[in-house]
Design a protein that fits this description.
Distance between the termini: 23 Å
CATH architecture of the largest domain: 3-Layer(aba) Sandwich
Order of helices and strands: HHEHEEEHEHEHEEEHEHEHHEEHHEHH
Strand content: 15-25%
Shape: globular
Structural class: alpha/beta
Helix content: 25-40%
Length: 433
């Protein structure tokens, strides 16, 4: 029987299958030091299983359970006692400005009433006021409930593939201390993003009296799920993620960045790669295989008569900066990345690469707000973002670091331009009927 799916959608579906395979290969080849990917579940968060303790989970990330205290923050982890965790709880690795890392409780998977707790053991010795960390590695305990000072919202139910009306965002409470929590898509290295958005944080706290926490999650999928679940007050989102969050969860577009993003086809000088046809039979690298730039790139190759996965191989970068090194080592013959991702490459690597062609100009990032903030505050935030980008100190530093030149109203025409990617984005992020 003839497949009724429109040809463009079938093409996008095939792209996503190819990208998924590339991501799987990338994750499989991660070094042992990158244990977050190896210990995370399908959503990218780390789920407590039978026999786990906080120190065991931290040991998988850091290489030794003895180093567990490096990932425990008494104020931000969400546990008053690291000895007390439950099977089904989920943690996210957070990196704060300055490089401080900690595990944060972000939710719990429903567990049957008869399910056993993680373990039962003697609690760690009590701590002194001068030292909030237990003297011995924490062990799993079996409390009736895990005491968490910051309530973690339950995961949102998966929306229908084609919802009739937008479902409201989960009514998760804001941070306990009224801090504005801003989640940022991890499209480049966490340290670089934290440094860039420190300017915004500093400006808002200095001029608006608003306490701000910038959060950069482990990967695209964790960011997407946290946004959809309502963990952030504001999300700095890739445009296709922002559109899905708007249509499926009722998040409110606040501003979009300017200028549009240049989608680049990158190679090495004198490598003989001068256009899409030159990668036939070769491997192509992607900085972020689930990005909108990647989807545009695959369509660009298809328009040139090359079928992804058939005429050329797709390979995802294994680290934030890995695609440049893949090119320089000859692992791939060309790469697709945004101009922002190219700017973020180490200077010595970028100097040894060249832009073969800027093949598309796609919508830039969109900041979306959780509707719990209320219309009045969202409108004030829109005005504040525009004032920040015009600021001659922090705003100018942000512009220099990011290449962003403006924050403007989210245009309905641009949002509608993203609609062909809503269905494929849902599927790529694991949302099913």
């Amino acid at each position: 029987m003839t497949d009724p799916t429109p040809a463009p959608l079938r093409a996008l579906q095939q792209d996503l299958r190819s990208i998924a395979a590339a991501c799987a290969m990338a994750v499989a080849s991660l070094a042992t030091g990158q244990a977050v990917a190896q210990t995370a579940n399908d959503s990218g968060t780390i789920e407590v299983v039978q026999g786990d303790s906080f120190s065991i989970i931290a040991g998988r990330i850091l290489g030794s359970p003895r180093q567990w205290a490096q990932l425990y923050n008494p104020r931000l982890t969400g546990l008053t006692d690291p000895n007390k965790i439950l099977v089904g709880q989920r943690f996210e690795l957070v990196t704060e400005p300055g490089g401080t890392r900690y595990l944060r409780l972000v939710g719990a998977k429903p567990v049957a009433a008869a399910a056993a707790p993680a373990a039962t053991a003697t609690p760690a010795p009590a701590t002194t006021a001068a030292s909030p960390k237990p003297a011995a590695p924490p062990v799993a305990a079996a409390p009736a409930q895990a005491p968490a000072p910051v309530p973690a919202p339950a995961p949102a139910p998966a929306p229908a593939a084609a919802p009739v009306a937008a479902a409201p965002a989960p009514a998760a409470a804001p941070a306990a201390d009224d801090t504005l929590v801003i989640g940022v898509l991890p499209n480049i290295a966490t340290a670089a993003l934290q440094a860039q958005y420190e300017n915004l944080k500093s400006w808002m706290e200095r001029t608006q009296g608003t306490k701000v926490r910038i959060t950069v999650p482990a990967n695209f999928k964790v960011f997407f799920e946290n946004t959809m679940r309502g963990d952030y007050d504001l999300s700095v989102a890739a445009p296709h993620f922002a559109r899905v969050a708007q249509t499926d969860r009722g998040l409110v577009p606040v501003v979009m960045y300017e200028p549009r993003i240049s989608a680049l086809f990158v190679g090495k000088p004198d490598d003989g790669i001068n256009g899409p046809a030159d990668v036939r039979g070769k491997a192509l690298g992607f900085a972020n295989p689930t990005s909108l730039v990647a989807l545009y790139g695959l369509q660009w190759f298809r328009n040139a008569g090359l079928e992804p996965g058939k005429d050329f191989e797709i390979r995802g970068a294994r680290t934030d900066m890995g695609v440049g090194r893949m090119l320089l080592t000859g692992e791939v013959s060309g790469a697709i990345m945004s101009n922002g991702e190219f700017r973020a490459l180490p200077q010595d690597e970028a100097a040894r690469l060249r832009t073969v062609e800027a093949f598309a100009r796609i919508p830039n990032f969109i900041i979306v707000a959780n509707p719990r903030l209320g219309t009045a505050r969202i409108n004030r935030l829109k005005t504040q973002f525009k004032a920040f980008i015009a600021d001659k100190d922090e705003g100018a530093a942000f512009v220099k670091a990011t290449g962003i030149t403006g924050m403007v109203d989210a245009d309905d025409a641009v949002l509608r331009e993203l609609d062909p990617y809503v269905g494929p984005t849902r599927r790529a992020m694991g949302i099913t009927n």
